[in-house]
């Protein structure tokens, strides 16, 4: 798993806080990353205590962890809906719940599961909150499309960098067999407008801007957790 800022205590407080809302009978989207992992572990303990849930993983990594924790899993096409998805974020605007995701290159499936879920509870440590979104936006792109997409985003002010693997030669390859371009735009004045522009680019499978999809966010710190609902 990639390492990100923020302490494990802060991440654990946020992740466990969101997991508290889960009860028997629920179908739960299992997010990706070090903060969502705390929620998955808490759900595994709940399953051990007899809570009857079904998990829908958002990535190979969250599936692996959920199996290790004993959470029964299904594919998205095997359930009628998702009650709650719990997921992390790389940068979060608490005011609106909009965020940038994809640090783990899992944002396409994360967004799909978030869009199906009745509720999306984002869990972050306090280092992820910001007054304005300015983190580079990950784009999952078809392998052949990475240069064309990199050129296209330049026309509306983006600077793309192909994400490189650290323990492999060449680029990061997503769970779906695609590549990731991280696109820096500086401060994003209008996330909804930019999201529409990015979605319209041929070759882009999905981008990591999640505009007002969250129904709740929990921000953990060393001393506690603060939850905002939308
Ligand atoms: C993966 C994600 C993660 O949720 C995001 O990168 C946050 O990860 P972490 O909780 O480890 O900081 O979007 O694609």
Question: What's the helical proportion of residues?
Answer: 25-40%
Cα radius of gyration in angstroms = 17 Å
Secondary-structure element series: HEHEHEEEHEEHEEHEEEE
Uncertain segments are none
| Spatial gap, N to C terminus | 30 Å
Number of helices, where a helix is a run of at least 4 consecutive DSSP H or I residues = 6
**Describe the biggest sheet?**
6 strands, mixed
Question: In which order are the strands of the major sheet placed?
Answer: 2-1-3-6-12-13
For the secondary structure, the number of strands is: 13
Based on CA inertia axes, which overall geometry fits?
globular
Query: Helix/strand/pairing class, anyone?
Result: alpha/beta
Strand content: 25-35%
Bound molecules: ribulose-5-phosphate
Mean pLDDT: 97
Can you walk me through this structure?
With 230 residues, the chain is an alpha/beta fold. The protein is 28% helix and 26% strand. The protein contains six helices and 13 strands. A six-stranded mixed sheet has the order 2-1-3-6-12-13. Strands 8-9-7-10 form a four-stranded antiparallel sheet. The chain has a three-stranded antiparallel sheet with strand order 4-5-11, with no helix packed on it. Helix 1 (8-19) packs across helix 2 (34-48). The protein starts with 7 loop residues before the first helix and ends with a strand. The model has no long low-confidence stretch (mean pLDDT 97). Residues 4, 31-36, 87-90, 101-107, 110 line the site of ribulose-5-phosphate.
């Amino acid at each position: 798993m990639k390492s990100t800022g923020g302490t494990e205590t802060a991440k654990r407080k946020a992740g466990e806080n969101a997991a508290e809302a889960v009860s028997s009978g629920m179908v739960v989207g299992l997010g990706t990353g070090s903060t969502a992992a705390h929620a998955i572990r808490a759900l595994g303990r709940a399953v051990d205590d007899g809570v009857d849930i079904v998990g829908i993983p958002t990535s190979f990594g969250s599936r692996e962890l959920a199996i290790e924790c004993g959470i029964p899993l299904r594919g998205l096409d095997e359930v009628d809906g998702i009650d709650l998805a719990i997921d992390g974020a790389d940068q979060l605007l608490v005011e609106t719940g909009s965020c940038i995701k994809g640090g783990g290159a899992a944002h396409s499936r994360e967004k799909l599961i978030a869009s199906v879920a009745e509720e999306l509870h984002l869990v972050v440590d306090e280092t992820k909150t910001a007054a304005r979104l300015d983190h580079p936006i990950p784009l999952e792109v078809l392998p052949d499309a990475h240069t064309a997409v990199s050129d296209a985003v330049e026309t509306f002010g983006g600077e793309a960098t192909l994400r490189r693997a650290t323990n492999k030669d060449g680029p990061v390859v997503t769970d779906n067999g695609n590549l990731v371009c991280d696109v820096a735009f500086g401060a994003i004045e209008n996330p909804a407008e930019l999201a529409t522009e990015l979605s319209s680019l041929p070759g882009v499978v999905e981008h990591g801007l999640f505009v007002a999809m969250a129904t709740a966010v929990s921000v953990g710190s060393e001393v506690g957790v603060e939850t905002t609902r939308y």
